[in-house]
Amino acid sequence: MIEPTGKMAKSSEANSAPDVALILLNNSGIGGTERRFAQVFRGLRARQVSVSLVINESLQLRLVRSRLLDPDAAGLVVKERVGKVAYALRKMDYALACVSVGWWLFRIKPKVMHLVLSGAYAALPAQALGWAPPAILSIVCPSLRELVGSAPGLWLYRRALKRAALVDALTESVGAMVESAGVAPERIRVSSGSCVDTNRFRPASTKKPWVVFSGRLVEEKNPILFVEACALVHRLMPEARFFLLGDGPLRRPVEESIRRHKLGACTDVGWRDEVEEILGPALLFASLQRMDNYPSQALLEAMACGASVVATDVGLTAKLVDHTVGLRVQADPISVADALVRLLADPERTQILGERGRERVLRDHSLDAYLTHLEGLYAAAGESGAQPAYASAEARR
Question: For position 83, what pLDDT does the model report?
Fold first, then answer.
């Protein structure tokens, strides 16, 4: 049995079988989910929870460069041989990951596994063979299709949902989506919030007229909308500077839009490992997602840095962004630009909004509360009665 904080087995060299295997795989980049769960792993370790990390090598490298993960922290680093030869075929590495993850689970025998992103795929064969312990599957997106992106992937992910002992839903809308996908309500747990490292992400002593977008350059995040709004802002506020902190399939269209609007001299594009060096001095942050901005990791990090927010009024965004921390707008360039100009024109008031935003993050999205939520899931999954094939006859009684 796995028990919550204070009773869980402590990490030690003598105990090679961890209570929890956190399986975090994604070979298409680094985003909020990856940063969130790297932080979770470090937080669990700090609580002396017996946890081992399974991660693919490219993601490990990115998280190490971002100072979110120690180089030797992982229990298993999944190799990516196909992706090194042909980047376009990198998804085939997940098939090889199934073998290495399955064999690792069979040998190490953790009590519970926590699956994040493509970890859900890699554990499926081991689950089918009975080699895997009970699983918690974390889902952060209110649309499976947006999360997965392909029909075969969607089919596999639905199988992972069916096999999970518990589904960890980041928001109520995610929980409703999971239930509509056929998961029984009693197997769904919704967290009260997310988490952010408020020691690393904190305001700079002086704020500048910087407007920041942070996230993958994909349709859901609306980076082109951000550029179009910045072009309007630039005409009225030529002293403003703009940042698109991210990379992705829309990188080229974004750069073309910047050139077309003649914003090259005042706009920076590309991910930075030390993202807090930009967020800390920034006066404003724009979160323009199409489905939901709550609780975007990038948005929480910006709010922790004392940036006031302009956010699209979609999904559960109002739970995080209201008139006390920023402005909610419609997803069109004029609405976004008007809000940005209003806030840039009154920096003293805008800085107060940013301070209130940081207070909200400290109150509602603490790492401690999120870790306690997860430890409760680990305990519940361990008590669920789901036993792997390698469990002894005595353990099954």
Answer: 54
**Across the beta sheet with 20-25, what order do the strands follow?**
76-78, 51-56, 20-25, 112-117, 135-139, 166-169, 188-190
Listed in order, strand segments (DSSP E) in the chain are 20-25, 51-56, 76-78, 112-117, 135-139, 166-169, 188-190, 208-214, 241-245, 267-269, 282-287, 308-312, 326-329
Query: pLDDT digit string (tens) for 108-166?
Result: 999 999 999 999 999 999 999 998 999 999 999 888 877 776 788 788 889 999 999 99
Report yes or no: 223 and 258 within 8 Å, Cβ to Cβ.
no
Sketch out the chain's domains with CATH numbers: 20-194+366-396 (3.40.50.2000), 208-364 (3.40.50.2000)
DSSP type of residue 75:
S
Give the integer Cα–Cα distance in Å for 98 and 105.
10
Distance (Å, whole) CA 255 – CA 124: 39
Q: Supply the pLDDT for residue 8.
A: 42
According to the model, what pLDDT value does residue 93 have?
75
pLDDT tens digits for range 230-259: 999 999 999 999 999 999 999 999 999 999
Average pLDDT, the chain: 89
Q: What are phi and psi of 192, to 5 degrees?
A: -80, -10
Q: What is residue 205's DSSP assignment? A: S
Strands 282-287 and 166-169: unpaired
Q: How far apart are CA 331 and CA 224, in angstroms?
A: 11
Q: What is the DSSP string of 223-237?
A: HHHHHHHHHHHHHH-
Q: Per the omega criterion (within 30 degrees of 0), is the bond before 295 cis?
A: yes
Q: How far is CA 102 from CA 27, 122, 129, 389, in A?
A: 18, 8, 9, 13
**Residue 48: CB partners within 8 Å, gap ≥ 6?**
10, 11
Q: What is the DSSP pairing of strand 20-25 with strand 112-117?
A: parallel
